[in-house]
Amino acid sequence: MKVLAEAERVGLIHNISNIHGRVEFICNCCACCCPFLSSIREMKDSGITAYSNFVVSVDEDSCTGCEGCIQRCQMEALHRKDDIVEVDRALCVGCGNCVSSCPADALSMKRRSAQKPLEIEDERVVALGGIADPF
Questions:
Q1: Contact 39, 100 (CB under 8 A)
Q2: Which pLDDT does position 120 carry in this prediction?
């Protein structure tokens, strides 16, 4: 837990396998070194290599436009427009780093959809990257 707390303090993005009921891996990455995160940022599409069911939401009445969250977002998903932060949902990976750094508590994480993580019952699915062998 100390490692995770330190990783969040310095702004790394927590990544885990998104399989219901089990954790295959956990890593703490930055978008400058991680090929998955950097490809999301470069291609401007969080759905191409990762799935997160959460996205940041901005309470426009509380946002002070301080830009602390913008500086902390490694995915370049936040921008300031008319003194309020806006979210590019295609770039937001749902890491929450911006939420934990907002002094106005204007940011929160919201569900993207009712979709749930993949449930694995067959070990062959894990070996094939989430696609069960039909044979």
A1: no
A2: 60
Bin 88: left if φ > 0, else alpha if -120 < ψ < 50, else beta. Answer: beta
Rounded to whole angstroms, how far apart are CA atoms 12 and 72? Answer: 9
State the architecture of 2-114 in CATH terms: 2-Layer Sandwich (3.30)
Tokens at residue 89, please? 């949902």
Is the CA virtual torsion 38, 39, 42, 48 positive or negative? negative
Q: Classify strands 118-119 and 19-20 as parallel, antiparallel or unpaired.
A: parallel
Q: Kindly report the pTM of this predicted structure.
A: 0.73
User: If we measure between CA atoms, which residue out of 17, 43, 18, 19 comes closest to residue 31?
Assistant: 43
Domain ranges of the chain: 2-114
**Tokens standing for 112?**
């993207």
Measure the CA–CA gap between 83 and 64, rounded to whole angstroms: 7
